[in-house]
Amino acid sequence: MQNNILILIICILLIAAGCGAKDEIKQSNLVNKNTEKVEAKTKSTEDRSHEIKAPDFKLATLNGQEFNLSDFKGKVILLNFWGTWCPPCRKEIPDLIKLQSKHNQDGLEIVGITLNSGSASAIQKFADKKNINYTILTDIDDDETYLVTLKYGRAVGQQISAVPTTLIIDREGYIVKGYIGPRSEEVFYEDLKEYL
Predict the structure, then answer these.
(1) pLDDT tens digits for range 62-79
(2) Which of 82, 88, 107, 149 is the most exposed place for a label (fewest CB within 10 A)?
(3) Residue 80: its H or E element
(4) CATH assignment of the domain containing 92
């Protein structure tokens, strides 16, 4: 019961703080904080102790398979926190589909973590209707997606309270860029191309 109340409160906060509340697109503080760090990384990949390592997590794919982020080391990950109920998230889906189609062979993996979007079967129906071609993750038992969201908020030093929120994770597992709000295929690719 307490978990259901907590999830309801989170859902209300996500709706009020992000999706639908503002049409404005904001750049994440992560981008501003890490600009120097990313530039330093391109100069020397030897010492990355000052950069943010993406926390590992375990969630379920829509067909019930276990997904561990650490299994994808060596790939460039576009990690997208989103919800089926979120209009800006839905607006972004066609651009994510295009990116996955064009750049998966270059090592890009788009991974969407669904928040408060219902059962795996309901999310699968939504994904099928939208022809989503990238990995969609959901809870294993109860509220693991919420816990992953908290973990990533702590890692980047900024609560993930609006969707979509998207992070670029490089081949070594470091978070190198972050966005709040939807972005176009062109914007994502401009920031991804140096890591592909």
Answers:
(1) 999 999 999 999 999 999
(2) 107
(3) strand 76-82
(4) 3.40.30.10
127-160 per-position pLDDT tens digit: 999 999 999 999 998 899 999 999 999 999 988 9
* DSSP label at residue 141: S
Q: Which of 167, 110, 115 has its CA nearest to residue 135?
A: 110
- What total of structural domains would you count in the chain? 1
Cα dist from 39 to 32, 34, 45, 48, 50, whole Å = 12, 8, 10, 11, 12
Angstrom CA distances, 3 to 43, 142, 144, stand at 46, 9, 11
**Global confidence as pTM:** 0.80
- Contacts by residues 64-68 (CB-CB < 8 Å, ≥ 24 positions apart): 64/120, 66/140, 67/111, 67/135, 67/137
pLDDT beyond 90 at 26? no
Look up the domain containing 132 and give its range.
Answer: 2-192
The token duo for 38 is 């990313």
